[in-house]
Amino acid sequence: MTAIQTVHVGGSAPYTVTIAPGLIDDGAVLTQALRGRHLLLVSDANVAPLYAARVEAAARAARPALNIGRFVMPAGEHEKTLARFGECLDALATLGATRDAAVLALGGGVIGDLAGFAGACWMRGIDVIQVPTTLLAMVDSSVGGKTAVDLPSGKNLVGAFHPPRAVVADTTALRSLPDRELRAGLAEVVKYGAIFDAGFLDWLEAHADALLARDDAALAEAVARSCRYKADVVERDPFEHGDRALLNFGHTFGHAIETEQGYAGASGDGLNHGEAVAVGMVLAARLSADLGLAPAADARRLQDLLQRFGLPVAVPPGLPPEALLARMRLDKKADARGLRFILWDAAGAARVVRDVPDAAVLAVLGA
Ligand SMILES: NC(=O)c1ccc[n+]([C@@H]2O[C@H](COP(=O)([O-])OP(=O)(O)OC[C@H]3O[C@@H](n4cnc5c(N)ncnc54)[C@H](O)[C@@H]3O)[C@@H](O)[C@H]2O)c1
Ligand SMILES: O=C(O)C(=O)C[C@@H](O)[C@H](O)[C@H](O)COP(=O)(O)O
Ligand SMILES: [Zn+2]
Fold first, then answer.
1. For the 3-dehydroquinate synthase N-terminal domain, which residue ranges apply (predicted)?
2. 251 CA to middle of ligand 3, Å?
3. Residue whose CA lies nearest to ligand 1 atom number 35
4. Which pLDDT band holds residue 333 (cuts at 50, 70, 90)?
């Protein structure tokens, strides 16, 4: 029996992450933050048939007067676009959503980011309830208030910080998740160990088989621990002026790969976000070793763990190092002084590093 777990995210707009089996049918928890009469459920074409009717029924049972609309879009990173964002806003207009309305994001990180951004923009900001259904969304994207859509020129280039009013993670939703997506989520779980806590890497190594076998208790613990790491840093630094940037470990490389591949992860012709981050973390760890900042053994340890989780650890063929470096210059961590990298001094101890020579970056990219 897996118990209910809660993680409090403090700060000026506090909220609770509730993690337990069965929450998709729990109207009281799903609607805990609702203030008005309108709710737009946003989901994708894979998730909606599995869970949307159950969420709607539970919400209606708890709040019979609720006027619920539904916006369902095609699945995949290549759909996290301004055009779909516009359609989501149109759905809010059709619903007649007032300023006390809420958006409920039911799905993975693509839905959470896009619906969250719609919530941030509709009438300059309405409430957002995140109901993550992928491991990646439970451990990372549903928490922290980063919302965005992609442009062809770069990942998450249009977005806003807009914290949710509640996060409701039903761990039984992970049972229908494709294996590939489970592994992608494990990449962001590994990230917390890599940047904050080598002891968590020990735990992941010890529980790798249980996690891959979708053992309920192991998954629930991985979700709750990950949310705690994220809540801690987001609470200290909600707008990424400081150490929240550490959550971007592996992302400067990973985002460049995703963008260069045209966000083709869903079709299998490219890496998805978690996979690209896995490659990026290995490159960041190698770069740290090449620069003499960290032991090469720690990079090998990270690579071994990611491989054990079935994740890619090398740049896919056909992506020229120079093209990836050019993509990285439009990363949100770059500023007028140039690129900033999240590197580490050792496993569990990440930091921001400037003035990394291009040659060293190109070398880990395979030039
Ligand atoms: N805002 C943040 O802080 C943050 C953090 C990490 C990642 N992200 C973003 O999240 C996105 C990646 O999220 P993702 O990995 O969840 O991808 P995703 O949303 O594309 O979901 C992956 C796939 O799983 C399917 N799916 C989702 N839940 C399912 C379930 N329970 N059963 C069956 N199928 C299911 C989806 O339809 C999709 O095909 C990227 O756009 C990334 O940039 C944002
Ligand atoms: O919450 C954060 O902060 C993160 O960086 C989490 C990342 O896993 C996530 O992919 C995020 O969307 C990347 O942010 P970006 O600012 O580089 O787009
Ligand atoms: Zn990420």
1. 71-183
2. 6
3. 177
4. confident
